[in-house]
Amino acid sequence: MSSNYLTKDQYKLLGKECDKVLLSEQACDYVVAINFLHVTREDQTLLKRYQRIFHESIWFFDLLSRYNNFFKFSLFAIYNLTRSLFHRNVELNLKKKSVDFLFISHYTGKSEFDSKDPYFGDVISQLNNKTSIVTAFINHTNRTDIDLKNRNDKITVLPLSNFSNFYHMLCMYKNLFLNSFSIRQSSNSGILSKIIKQTRVEALSYSTVRNLIIANQIKDIVDTYSPSCIVTTYEGHAWERLAFSAARSAKFNIKCIAYQHAPIFRLQHAIRRPIGEQYNPDIILTSGTVSKNQLELSNKLCKTKIITLGSGRNIELKMAYLSQKYKTFSCLVAPEGKMEECNIIFNFSLKCAIKNPTMIFIWRFPPMVNIKLLIKHNNIFLNLPNNIIVSRITLLKDILRSRFILYRGSSVVIQSVVFGLKPIYLKIYDELTIDPLYAITQGRDIICNVEEFEKSISTNVDATIKKNLITYCKYIYTPLDVNILENVLKNYNAPTN
What domains can you pick out in the chain, each with its CATH number? Predict the structure, then answer.
């Protein structure tokens, strides 16, 4: 409901007050590890946990809520400690050797990896011809038997565990508990007071411990391989900052590089501000000139070097068969990777499909969600009409058989627009926008209901406006230039004896 959504002013205040805790004298790895303090972006599904901060409620219910979360996190702690009794850390049984780059990427469920990384694209494969590389993958699934196979044997691939041994886990929980209560309150009222109270509980959450476990493994990898540079994805998450801290604690002069691989949202907060020299990237690489300009507008990043690297997602219309004369009256439906977002956009497109039986709707699922999980989450999707197709082919083929794209926060809209699809953004009433094309004033429609969707698909975009929109999206993902990273390596200051 609209009354539960944070306003723009509340969102900005939230980021400002959370940053005060991260910038306080008490801030250390055990505080920086708390996801709750990193306000990433204005997605309302992510902001739900902050809603209580801005709503007046009886003190008893606030206290009850915190104790409920504390009890839940305590159960997680017992589970983690019990499981850690049977866990053995992965030993890097290799002689110490120096490499040029350590990349930190992500595993979302695919059984194997080829030379093209799902987040860094062709960066790793192109660099590997001239440099030495180690790639570590953060596990975002429940699987523990991950076999990361790489067709290029020259690249060392390491899966990162979400667990550690009993001693390490016990030390983490002990330090988290002590550090959480070291955070001082300046007053007994106000937004900051509520944030600190909730932070003390969130310090014991599963995600906080997981961030520390990942950081500890990154430290071991840096200690073993002594990379000149560490490169992480960059979306504003706590683990990214901890990765830089861990790398620097193992090697003081390592170059910390953050790669902004996805479009930047209008109020995206955490990637636009520093939180301390130990946790800041030395260099931010962007996927295109649009995002470079967006980051440079933040005066807080004036001391950070920002360079355009480009992206493997860049698509150029060079082949004659990629015609913009589409044969089917189809709409590509592309949600983000969260179940809540899948439920919102697929539910809406289902209503559109029922009312428009002559139009084909192509549902493209993100990596960690599929039709079975969606039905389990909401059985309204059990029986779909014939004009809904669940895609099992490549993104490019889906784009080529579509005329429109229905989206919210998904970056798939960028490539779709380059190929001439008309973008239609689904907005929930009174929410903050999560549109990657928020800076565009013409060329895409913003809709809230089925009637507005029907009006959008019956209206053509002016040719000049469409051309400008395509040009803009091309600059979001510019052609990849790995020479940028080669130059960073070349200018690397080797340690002195």
Answer: 2-86+165-313+482-490 (no CATH), 330-476 (3.40.50.2000)
Contact assessment for residue 19 and residue 275, using Cβ atoms and an 8 Å cutoff: yes
Q: What is the pLDDT of residues 163-175, one digit of tens each?
A: 888 888 888 888 8
Q: What is the pTM of this model?
A: 0.89
Q: If you average pLDDT over every residue of the chain, what do you get?
A: 87
Q: Is the pLDDT assigned to residue 95 strictly greater than 70? A: no
* CA-based nearest residue to 328, from 402, 271, 438: 402
Q: CA nearest 198: which of 222, 223, 186, 180?
A: 180
List pLDDT tens digits, range 223-266: 999 999 999 999 999 999 999 999 999 999 999 999 999 999 99
**C-beta of residue 342 within 8 angstroms of C-beta of residue 114:** no
What integer pLDDT is reported at residue 117 of this predicted model?
Answer: 79
Alpha carbon 419 to chain centroid, angstroms: 25
Q: Which residues have a Cβ under 8 Å from the Cβ of 466 and sit 6 or more positions away?
A: 420, 443
Is the model more confident about 451 or about 169? 451
State the helix-helix crossing angle for 339-355 and 450-457, rounded to 10 degrees: 70
- Angle of CA points 139, 145, 148, to nearest 5°: 65
CA dihedral (137, 75, 22, 11) in degrees, to 10, reads 90
Rounded-to-integer distance, Cα 336 and Cα 365, Å: 8
What is the average per-residue pLDDT within 421-434?
94
Q: Among residues 194, 199, 253, 247, which one has the least CA distance to residue 30? A: 199
**CA-to-CA separations, 255 to 5, 222, 230, 494, in angstroms, rounded:** 40, 12, 6, 10
SS3 content of the chain, % helix, strand, coil (to 5): 40, 15, 45
Does residue 219 contact residue 246 with C-beta atoms inside 8 Å? yes
Inter-residue contact 388 to 353 (CB < 8 Å): yes
Tell me if 256 sits within 8 A of 230, measured CB to CB: yes
Percentage of residues of the chain with pLDDT beyond 70? 87
Average pLDDT over residues 109-125: 71
211-214 long-range CB contacts below 8 Å, 24 or more apart? 211/33, 211/35, 211/238, 211/239, 211/242, 212/29, 212/30, 212/33, 212/172, 212/176, 212/242, 213/161, 213/162, 213/163, 213/164, 213/168, 213/172, 214/138, 214/160, 214/162, 214/239, 214/242, 214/243
**What is d(CA 82, CA 94) in angstroms, rounded to the nearest whole number?**
30
